[in-house]
Specification:
Length: 289
């Protein structure tokens, strides 16, 4: 049996689960995922591996070393560790927004997460039915709660490194940075956010617009645009009056174009027939109300 090699940074497992044996099992599972290049879920840039241990199940997010030929994707382990720390910060102030984090393995770099699939959550992209307006409304509320939690937490201390975007411009906050429909999981009544690799100081409008753009593409229905925008907006509540609507519109535009140009084989490939200009005109009218 593999031995515990002392590489585990944290040991915050539920009592009776995290021990040196579990540490070894998790590490072996991470190594096997890399060697076999295997995933349970398609990660954009990581191996995502489901792990069962003593009747419990966990998710391992393992650094995908083979993807590092893409210079735009900084796949250094510190990035994964940054994500781990952000998740810890959010969990410290709000337990029901992100998966619990159980630990971090350094070699190979991997985060051990709560298995949200086991808890009944699925990525929006895999929901077979079109989302209801109530779900979109709940999602708006969830994004608002996430923004509050991120900014209330000690996550701002993680941005002190000058190599990150550290000169906050007016109107900027800590944001998720990539609220696409694979990074948002829904259950019947609840929402969870994943994948904080792109968490940064930026505009809240980016998170809202990026998420809305992806939802409009999934709907692929011009007649629903307004109700979707209204549902998300009223869910986000609080600060909408202070948001820059043109910034939301610009981001929706980028999201729609990104989705419409995704190549076959990409998880974001879609065969939509929405006209981007008509869609944006509809969204613009909804935002003006
Ligand atoms: N804790 C988790 N519980 C359930 N599913 C998860 C969990 N973590 C990741 N996933 C699944 O794996 C996919 C990719 O995870 P993500 O963290 O977004 O990796 P990447 O950075 O490679 O995109 C998600 O879309 C989701 O389907
Ligand atoms: Mg992702």
């Amino acid at each position: 049996m593999a031995k515990h090699d002392g590489q585990i940074a944290r040991q915050r497992m539920p009592p009776g689960v995290w021990d040196t044996d579990f540490a070894s099992v998790a590490r072996d599972c991470a190594i096997a995922a890399i060697q076999r290049r295997s995933t349970n879920r398609l990660g954009d840039t990581h191996f995502i591996k489901r792990l069962r241990y003593r009747d419990r199940s966990f998710y391992l997010k393992v650094r995908h070393i083979f993807a590092s030929s893409d210079p735009n994707i900084a796949l250094d382990p510190t990035r994964l560790h940054f994500e781990y720390r952000i998740l810890e910060c959010v969990n410290a102030v709000e337990k029901s927004l992100v998966p619990s984090v159980h630990g971090f393995i350094h070699h190979p770099a991997a985060i051990v997460l709560e298995d949200l699939e086991d808890a009944g959550f699925q990525p929006i992209l895999q929901h077979e039915d079109v989302l209801s307006n109530d779900q979109v409304n709940g999602l708006g509320y969830g994004i608002a709660s996430l923004h509050t939690a991120l900014n209330k937490s000690s996550a701002n201390q993680l941005f002190d490194n000058p190599s990150r975007n550290t000169t906050p411009k007016p109107g900027t906050h800590i944001i998720h940075g990539d609220l696409n429909t694979k990074n948002i999981l829904l259950s019947k009544n609840d929402v969870r956010f994943l994948d904080f690799e792109n968490c940064r100081i930026g505009y809240r409008e980016h998170d809202i617009g990026w998420c809305l753009g992806h939802i409009l593409i999934i709907d692929n229905d011009l007649t629903r645009c307004r109700e979707r925008v209204n549902a998300l907006m009223s869910g986000y509540k609080g600060a909408f009056a202070h948001l820059d609507k043109s910034r939301i519109l610009d981001t929706i535009n980028s999201a729609i174009r990104y989705r419409m140009t995704a190549p076959p084989g990409s998880p974001f490939f879609s065969t939509v027939n929405l006209d981007p200009s008509d869609t944006l005109a509809e969204v613009s009218r909804a935002l003006a109300n």
